[in-house]
Amino acid sequence: MDQRRLCTDGGEPGSDRALESDDGSHHPGSPRFVAVDEGIVDPNGNEMETRDDLAPRNPDGDATYAWRVLESPEGSNAIPTDGPIAEFEPDVPGEYTLALEASDGPHELTVRVFPEADEDAPRPQVELDATVEGDRVRLSATASVVSDGDSSVEYYVDDRNGDVLESDGTIPIGAIDEPVRVYAVAVDERHSVPDAIELVPADDAADEPSVRVERPFESPEWAVDAVVYEVFTRRFPDRDEPTFETIAERLDHLETLGIDVLWLTPFLDAKSGFGTPMENGGPHGYNTTNYFGVDPDLGTMAGLEALVDACHERDIRVVFDLVINHTADTHPFYEAAVDETHPDHERYRDWYRWADFDERAPDTYFGWDDIPNLNYANPEVREYLLSVVDFWTERVDGFRADVAWGVPLSFWTEVSDRVSGADSDFFLLDETLPSDVEMGGGRFHTHHDDVLHDTLEALGASVAGEADNETAAEADEAEAEEDAVADEFTDSAAGIDTTSADAILEAVEDRQRRGAHPDSEWLLYVENHDTDRYLDEYGRDAQRAAGAATFTLPGSPMLYYGQETGVTGRRDPMNWGAFDEDLLEYYRRLIDLRNSHPALRSAADLECIEYETDTDAAVAFARADPASGRRVVVAFHFGAGTARVELGESVTDAEPLLGADALESGGTLAVDSVVVLEGDES
């Protein structure tokens, strides 16, 4: 890494231990699984499409790399594109072997290509396991799909481990002298996201199996049931002195609520710092000018580290908003790229993607011309951004990846292996709109649940429209304007009937239909920094019901600062000293119940139950925890007033956990916002 380049960007070369991906070689990583019509491509444009490429790991910006095909199915003419980082569009189904020529020798990569499939067909899911049987390890897998299909399973061993898998689905223990990673893919009308296990030679202890089975795609244990709190960093602390120190002084609020994770929006030096007007998004920080330095108006690096320490003292983890799809157009690299008189112009011109370089028109998303997209086809860019990852991995507990879909999947796979190799408890959360299940299975642990979010917004809009007696045209216009950023570009609930509240159950079930990795966790949110406030848009009753949904459905609930205290402006300052105390108490009770009841945790099942109601704005379901045998029945009402929900099961002896006065005669519930009853396991 060029130390001058790091210094230019505010880094401190040599002050931190550099991480390595895998064994430190340039091997391109795990086998790839794609369909003929997908390919491994990274085009300009395609604002809502996930990208991918073929790339060396631990890249050296000064080295030479080349790709070629070693083996391919009969009839294929596909070859990788020229360049150190290549695209590949296979034309025939089957198994390909590609070779990467690098300074540390040739590296082979398996690419399994499946036939073109109907994108509307459900994707299967697969869970891989293994058992030790004498002198062999036997693989086994469970495949499922939301259809009448009969999925088959294929096994692959990582190319770095050699040919150790035998035809009967076993691996000789004698061949496992180092960790061996094995992958399983389920195949139906479409192929699944792969699952993986790692077979690790055990210590010589006599009471241990000779091989230990590890699951590299599992989330850190602390993240599975975490309650997340997002703060808009420059709006959360005191208005008079907004700094890391004054954020730390407000942590008692989070601790009292029962928060597990603090997600800080960008706090690095950025174009949009303090003083940025709201018509430009306010002081959001998503246009970085220095990846190694904090915004001096917020404080110093020591101040940030003290804030992280203060969080840890309260058992709160800290997630850093990693913005590496793009930079600000005032970043030193971009300024050099567009200025032909700059001494580093030729170097940095290739650090960005261009729609038309002669016109100085960068490749951007959604017309945001002041945040040009970085060029991941340049090994120097990847090398540099991996140094950014290394730097911040040692300072925080996890990353939330902004515009994750704009960065190639291959890079995120390397990041995941890189950071988990250094710290198995490090956490990765992606923002992908619309969410893509390919972000699971060895890339990110948790994903924004945009499908549930957009469903909750549609329900809120429906209820608000009824309350205001809007015409259909007025409702459509309001819906078109409702979201400040996120829903301007995508409606992730488009395939769900959102005219009734039971759409929230379909939104959760949609995860399985899309083939999400079994270990994928989901971030459930009513609002965030890219949406308008639910309370302001749809009213108090709908906000309470939507908030309750995020704390009672499977997933990790998230609060956006002030959601619990009555803030109505998307990026307004926190309303310290003017809390809506009734609303705050409501969320305290939700969080306490979510944290204390096993039937509301991630391991609990979601059950559809029989019920009748007098409004489309109400829904009921159950959650059951197999381990404890405990079960709850939950009912929501998004509208004003009280809904009557008649359950198809007896709840006469049920204990009310929320909504103490809701139980009427004959098993009918009077539901204002939410009712939670504990009953017998069905």
Q: How do the helices and strands line up, and which of them pair or pack?
A:
Layout: H1 3-8, E1 32-35, E2 66-71, E3 94-102, E4 105-114, E5 125-133, E6 136-144, E7 152-157, E8 170-172, E9 180-187, E10 195-201, E11 211-214, E12 228-231, H2 244-248, H3 251-257, E13 261-264, E14 268-270, E15 288-294, H4 301-313, E16 317-322, H5 332-338, H6 345-349, E17 354-356, E18 361-362, H7 379-393, E19 398-401, H8 409-422, E20 427-430, E21 446-448, H9 450-467, H10 472-481, H11 503-513, E22 521-525, H12 534-538, H13 540-552, E23 556-560, H14 581-596, E24 605-607, E25 611-613, E26 618-625, E27 630-637, E28 643-647, E29 655-658, E30 668-671, E31 674-679
What does this structure look like?
The chain is of the alpha/beta class. Among the domains are: 97 residues, Immunoglobulin-like, CATH 2.60.40; 48 residues, no CATH class; 147 residues, Glycosidases (TIM Barrel), CATH 3.20.20.80; 75 residues, Immunoglobulin-like, CATH 2.60.40. Helix content is 21%, strand content 24%. Strands 12-13-16-19-20-21-22-23 form an eight-stranded parallel β-barrel, surrounded by four helices. Strands 24-26-27-31-29 form a five-stranded antiparallel beta sheet, covered by helices on one side. The chain has a four-stranded mixed beta sheet with strand order 1-4-3-2, with no helix packed on it. Helix 9 packs across helix 10, helix 9 packs antiparallel against helix 11 and helix 13 packs parallel to helix 14. The N terminus is likely disordered.
